[in-house]
TrEMBL record:
Name used for this protein in its record: Glycosidase
Matches recorded under InterPro entries: Glyco_hydro_beta-prop_sf, Mannoside_phosphorylase
Entry keyword set: Glycosidase, Glycosyltransferase, Hydrolase, Transferase
Source organism (scientific name): Cellulomonas phragmiteti
Family: Belongs to the glycosyl hydrolase 130 family.
GO MF: hydrolase activity, acting on glycosyl bonds
Residue ranges of the TM segments: none
């Protein structure tokens, strides 16, 4: 949705920043069908509960099987793509190892699968911390318009975070329009590489729409969350382009950094990041090499902004600190708000700072194009701080972005508000550059 810009006395900040009415809020009807295994504690017979449940389902008479399956199709089929195929797959997983058992009729196979399937609402708790890049397909647009892909962090039951995608356009007048939210979700087929257990390939169905695709945690390192994807369109030395997104993998106890790579958002690969520059959260890639090496923002010391380099995008060297907390609104810690954006005056790095009452604000740095470790300017006051309804949510008083997109002389800045919803602001690039150059 979109509409007129929000104005009024409750909106504060620089005149060159404008909030829009674009907003994405968590939708509890956005569900996936997942394998469900009843508690694996041992029952009195010495068998796991799943075996007992399977036995009870197999004991149902044919009429009841037909009746239950018909009712399930009526109630659930419209919420999923090819639900019966999912039931077949889950049923086969549960009966794996029972090769000597006689084959079951299709209706009973599917009912078995249905008993071992659950709906999971991927964004029942939150939909936030977005990043935005130009879409790989820019065909068929009006002059001056850009089609975009936006990543969002979806959080559901158990505070588990997944990656979702959204698409939309920005027109010549900077009007942001999101495409309609999808009714159904599509999960990928995943192949985990042998070895470290942290690398994998995820392939989505060829007929799936981009905004239907959901990447849930796949390996132990990210079992509790794929968090805060910082997506960037990379330009390689040979002129070709691809997309990469750094993110925080959370296993319920500790964090690590991963790199997601894709060319079309249908096939994605994920690999772990290493080296001193990839410690802690918040690695954000520059969109091209500088001086023959890849460059990234880093927050390896957990409180300062630094620059690190790499030969292969995977191992990151010792970071060089370029900004330490100085202003009151960033005294607790600093970090980046996504990949740097190239301009004729330097690299614009959106930052976040944490101040009193754990208030998160968005600021900016300007780094030299040829030597990104050289700071040309920084904002002394935030360009965006939570106001009004933005202050209320799962984590109050937070505005946070994982990446803005340049559109002509405007930065389209999607941001999470208080760790619950996603909104969009527009930043006049010339106003921002003038402010950065004046410091």
């Amino acid at each position: 949705m979109t509409g007129p810009l929000v104005t009024g006395p409750h909106v504060t900040g620089p005149s060159w920043v404008r909030r829009t009415e674009v907003e994405l809020r968590p939708d509890p009807d956005r569900v996936v069908a997942r394998l469900f295994l009843p508690g694996q504690e041992m029952v009195a017979t010495g068998r796991p509960r799943s075996a007992a449940v399977l036995g009870r389902v197999l004991a149902l008479d044919d009429a009841e099987v037909e009746r239950e399956l018909a009712d399930l199709v009526t109630r659930f089929e419209g919420r999923h793509h090819d639900l019966e195929a999912t039931w077949e797959a889950h049923g086969a997983q549960v009966r794996h190892g029972s090769a000597g058992d006689p084959p079951l009729p299709a209706t009973r196979r599917r009912l078995v699968g249905a008993y071992f399937t659950q709906e999971y609402a991927v964004q029942s708790a939150a939909l936030f911390n977005p990043s935005m890049v130009p879409h790989p397909d820019q065909s068929g647009l009006a002059a001056g318009s850009t089609r975009f892909v936006m990543t969002v962090r979806a959080t559901g039951e158990g505070h588990v975070s997944s990656l979702e995608l959204r698409t939309g356009t920005v027109d010549a007048h900077d009007v942001v329009a999101l495409d309609p939210s999808p009714v159904r979700t599509r999960l990928p087929v995943v192949a985990v590489e042998q070895g470290d257990g942290r690398s994998y390939e995820a392939t989505f169905p060829a007929d799936s729409a981009m905004s239907e695709r959901v990447l849930m945690p796949q390996v132990a390192a990210e079992s509790h969350g794929i968090e805060d994807v910082r997506l960037v369109r990379l330009t390689h030395p040979d002129g070709s382009a691809s997309y990469a997104g750094t993110y925080t993998a959370y296993d319920g106890r500790g964090i690590s950094a991963q790199l997601l790579r894709t060319e079309d958002f249908a096939r994605m690969t994920s690999h772990p990041l290493g080296g001193p520059g990839a410690r802690d959260k918040g690695v954000a890639l520059f969109p091209r090499q500088v001086g023959g090496r890849w460059v990234a923002m880093s927050r390896a010391d957990r409180e300062s902004n630094a620059v690190t380099t790499s030969a292969d995008l995977l191992h990151w060297d010792e970071p060089v600190v370029v900004q330490r907390p100085e202003q009151g609104w960033e005294t607790i810690q600093l970090g980046n708000c996504g990949p740097p954006i190239e301009t004729e005056r330097g690299w614009v790095v959106l930052t976040h700072g944490v101040g009193p009452m754990r208030t998160y604000s968005i600021g900016a740095l300007l780094l030299d194009l040829d030597d990104p470790a050289r700071v040309l300017g920084s904002l002394t006051s935030p360009l965006l701080t939570a106001v009004g309804e933005e202050r209320s949510g799962y984590v109050p008083n937070v505005v946070y972005s994982c990446g803005a997109m340049r559109h002509g002389r405007t930065l389209v800045l999607p941001y999470g508000s208080s760790d619950i919803a996603t909104r969009v602001a527009l930043v006049d690039l010339d106003g921002l550059l003038d402010e950065l150059s004046a410091t």
